[in-house]
Amino acid sequence: MTPSAQKSSLLLIYTGGTIGMKQDPDELTLRPFDFSQILEEVPEIRKFAFRIDSYTFDPLIDSSDVEPSLWQSLAELIQARYDDYDGFIILHGTDTMSYSASALSFMLDGLTKPVIFTGSQLPIGVPRTDGKENLISAVEIASAKDAEGHAKVPEVCICFDSLLMRGNRTTKVNAEVFRAFLSPNYPPLAEAGINIRYNDEAIRKPLDWYQRVSVNTSLDTRVAVLKLHPGMTPQAVRYFLCGPQTRAVILETYGSGNAPMKEWFLDIVREADAAGKIMVNVTQCLRGTVNMDLYANGKALEKAGVIPGYDATTESVLAKLFYLMGKSEDDKWVKAMMGRNLKGEISK
Ligand code: ASP
Questions:
Q1: Whose Cα sits closest to atom 7 in ligand 1?
Q2: What is d(CA 130, CA 126) in angstroms, rounded to the nearest whole number?
Q3: How far apart are CA 54 and CA 12, in angstroms?
Q4: Could you list the residue range(s) of the whole structural domain that residue 280 is in?
Q5: CATH code, domain carrying 235
Q6: Shortest-distance Cα residue to atom 3 of ligand 1
Q7: 345 in any annotated domain
Q8: Which ligand 1 atom lies nearest to the CA of residue 18?
Q9: pLDDT band for position 2 (50/70/90)?
Q10: Cβ atoms within 10 A of the Cβ of 232, count?
């Protein structure tokens, strides 16, 4: 252990999820239990020679119940405790972890310390749990410093099944095996094997290590997501694209950003554009980027007012829209910022 690691102090924030669940003897379903038992289950983390404090949310939730209000609470908590700790670990259910990590990546500005989400596929109390390894790796990475004493990974990340990934690049891809998350369009930031190997070139570093972290908690959630599929009806497409309650729509398109060329479909897209809707094109494919110049079908969308989401995940586009729209009522500005790489969420 390096001398700088010895001085580390971490805040472990527990929001719920499988990692801290146990079986309800009556209903035989998994329910969250008291966080103090997690430390009992993982005595290894007490062996680290640094301070680990904990904060438990009340109520603990299955992450299917996550709402933007949780992200606001997390961001405010991190800001309030920022000076007291070298890093933050957020124990969170896997189902919506990529959404939460994406949101925090935009909401926290000027980050100089790690904020690492982790959880597990099996509850920490069961013998073959992946929770222990995930937590121990997250603790080690969150406390890691470089030779100058700066955090090795001053980013919002997900640490899962020995991979450390940029949070806003991740997506949950598997509900059964331990490798639940992938970062399809960006390399892992670190890999935990015998040693933890950091991919230093892939890690974003702040321009100023002494800047103050700032938090944007104002989010505008008026976003709809439409996954295109053969057999769509004009009624359903109009409902998603032109609804009075939506300010932005994410279109999950085919391949490199293609959609039907049918006149009724493009007419509705044009109608939505004329009504001022922000429409972002994200591919349904796991890997690759939207390129609306490649096929006539993509070009038609672009002409109708849709902007590209490049190689971003749906989770990160959703979070970015919430964040940008929360900052400004100016849709032109929001569209322009959607095309900028703000937190490493797109390869641009
Ligand atoms: N349903 C759980 C949750 O997301 C699943 C998990 O934690 O793995 O909270």
A1: 93
A2: 9
A3: 5
A4: 223-338
A5: 3.40.50.40
A6: 93
A7: no
A8: 7
A9: very low
A10: 18
